[in-house]
Structures are given as C-alpha cells and as structure tokens.
C-alpha cells in the first residue's frame, strides 16, 4: 500500500512536470547515515528475489560470498567458542547474519542486542528469541557488569566517530564476564595500504566520514588496562577495503 501511494504521488508530480518537459527519476542511494548502510526493505526483497538467506544475500552484494561464515571460522580458530557461551550480546546486529551463526553454534539461554535501526530491530525480534535493549547509540546501559559471555560487534565500529568507539570499548570491557570474549572489527593502520586507500577514495559512493581509522596498538593497550588480554586478529572484507577483527578475553 505504501509503495502504491508513493507511485501515485510520483506519477502525479511527473504529470505536472511533464508540462515543463521535466521528470522525477530515482537516484542511487548515497551512504550518508551508517544506519542506512544496508537498507531493510530493499535487502529483504532482494534476498527473496535471489532465493538466498538474508545473510547470504548481504555477503554477495556488500562483501563477498561466504564472508560471514569466514568470520565465524576465524573466531573459532582463535578459541572464541572453545568454552560454553550462555549469554550473548551484540552491538548493531542489523540483519543478524553474524548473530544467527553464533546462536546456531552456542545455543545460549540468553541473547540481547543493541540496534539503532528500528526496522531491523523489529525484524530480529520476530526472527529470534532475543531481547532488544533500549539503544542510545553509545552505551550498553541496560546490561549489568560482568554478565555476558560473548560481546560482539561486526561492521559497526568502522562507521563510528572515535569517541563513540571508545565508549563502546569501555562498555564491552565492563559487561563481559571473567573468561568471556570480546569480538569486534575496526579499521586499523594495516587496513589502509596505498592500494586500499585509493579504492576508498575512488568509490564515489558518498563516504565522507567513514571508515574511521583506529590504532591497533592503542586498542590493545586500552583493553589491557581494563584487564582484557589480546587473543589475536584477522582481516575480513568490507568493500571496497577491509577491516581487522580483534578478539580479547577478560582475565
């Protein structure tokens, strides 16, 4: 009904503009708000048309086929799932493509998410048995300290200003249990070789403030001061470049 109304309005406007030999046309969406990086309605419809799961469709269109599973496999190699994970929290899960695979692996009794995009958040609540916490885009205020076994954020922090990222770093270290794991990706110095930087500069997709560069060593030291040891890292694609996914364990 919403699309039909939009079509009627556009046709009406075009009928008037036709007298002036003008016409409204749809332009490609430019990336100006990180919450709109993967649009909800377009993605759900695209997945249906392609006969793919939402996660596989996003991988194929925005990253590379299998990229999400590759991330989970690398997390496994670094021991993220070596011990029982019963309580999971994800920051900015969006479509839930990473969360879905984690839930299948761990079968936790409790899962919560912090998601700013209302459409994706509502969709996740319908798809999974989880709690959508009130989200302010900078904290995990509804989560008690040392209550989470795995706190993760995928493809979220590269699109945040540095101070927001630092706030989330602090919150991750606060909410994770002793022995629990922290997993997130950031764009480090090693993600910006000359060729990759040229790719970013040449995209023409509207990237003006993102991705945000974050120092790898600063991040390691930041978590070390909060009793979280660096376990390891790996690179994952984020077109037109890549990010570095880092794993920490709370002592």
Task: Give a description of the structure.
The protein has 251 residues and is of the alpha/beta class. It contains 9 helices and 7 strands. The protein has a 7-stranded mixed β-sheet with strand order 3-2-1-4-5-7-6. The longest helix has 16 residues, at 2-17. It is globular and about 45 Å long.
**Residue share in helix:** 25-40%
Which spans of ≥5 residues are poorly predicted at pLDDT below 50?
6-11, 13-36
* Rg on CA atoms, Å: 20 Å
The shape, in one word, is globular
Query: What does the largest sheet look like?
Result: 7 strands, mixed
Number of strand elements? 7
In percent, how much strand structure appears in the residues? 15-25%
Q: What attributes characterize this protein structure?
A:
single chain; 251 residues; alpha/beta; seven-stranded mixed beta sheet; 9 helices; 7 strands
Give a quick summary of the entry.
The chain has 251 residues and is α/β, with parallel strands linked by helices. Helices cover 39% and strands 20% of the residues. It has a seven-stranded mixed sheet.
Describe how the helices and strands are arranged.
Layout lengths: L1 H16 L22 H11 L3 H9 L4 H11 L9 E5 L5 H10 L3 E5 L3 H10 L3 E2 L15 E6 L8 H14 E11 L7 H8 L14 H9 L3 E11 L2 E10 L1
Parallel strand pairs: 1-2, 1-4, 2-3, 4-5
Antiparallel strand pairs: 5-7, 6-7
Helix pairs in contact: 2-3, 4-5
